[in-house]
Amino acid sequence: MGVIVMDTATDALGVAAGRMDGTLLSAVTQRVPRGHSRLLQPSVQFVMKSAGFSAGEIERIGVGTGPGSYTGVRMAVSTGKAMAHALRVPLVTVPTLDAIALAAGMSGGQPVGAAERDGKQAVLVLLFARRHRAFGGWFVLEGGQLRQRSQAEVKPIEMWLDEVPGEVPGGLPLLVHDLPQAELASRSNGSAFQLAAWSDVCTRFPDALFRLSLKGDYPSFEGERIHTVLPDYALPVEAEAKLKSQQEGGERP
């Protein structure tokens, strides 16, 4: 009967509950710095209570798998794994960037900034990864639906902004980002995009994650296979990167 989804990979904690038929019943977005660890469980309980679910009525759990910070992305993945294993229900894993791209296309049912001629919109999602880098991926929305996606990568912001394809659907691509203003202002190619701040898109994020968790496009894990689910960190852990650099005789990253 019920579906619960959650994501803690970004600065916005997203949790939602709905029915297997696609009806969203309750959703919560909270942007409280360093608050995910204390807010996740109460948020799950809140959406379940609001939706009228008991634990025994949950049929599926969806989690955003990142990329994101080492600590942040693990919270929802670990909680989702524990709940799915205890309740003996499937765990569906959805890349966080996919849900962000879809959330950007959920303004009035049409892609934000979509060209009139074909309803398609190219979307670049970038999440700040420090040291002038960003987690990112390219997507294509059509009629508010996610039609094409790419794997998450980490590259310098300058490189992301310079690789705009020559032919993209829907005119100027949409850039959804949480980059510091100074990072974007210093890039020469920033004007090649329509801009959408993550702070404006994140309120639709739980709904987008819920919708994608119901599609058959993403891996579903049951039984002992739930234990094999891992977050997508996209970057090595900071301590490991420093240790490797020192062992190789290089400068500290």
Automatic annotation (TrEMBL):
EC code(s) of this entry: 2.3.1.234
Pfam families referenced in this protein's UniProt entry, alphabetically: TsaD
MF-aspect GO terms: tRNA N(6)-L-threonylcarbamoyladenine synthase activity
Domain of life: Bacteria
Keywords (A to Z) from UniProt: Acyltransferase, Transferase
This protein's record includes keyword Cell wall biogenesis/degradation: no
Record-annotated membrane-spanning stretches: none
Top enzyme category: transferase
Domain Gcp-like span(s) in chain numbering: 33-125
Alphabetized InterPro entries for the sequence: ATPase_NBD (IPR043129), Gcp-like_dom (IPR000905), T6A_TsaB (IPR022496)
Name of the protein in question: tRNA (Adenosine(37)-N6)-threonylcarbamoyltransferase complex dimerization subunit type 1 TsaB
Organism: Alicyclobacillus fastidiosus
Organism lineage string: Bacteria, Bacillati, Bacillota, Bacilli, Bacillales
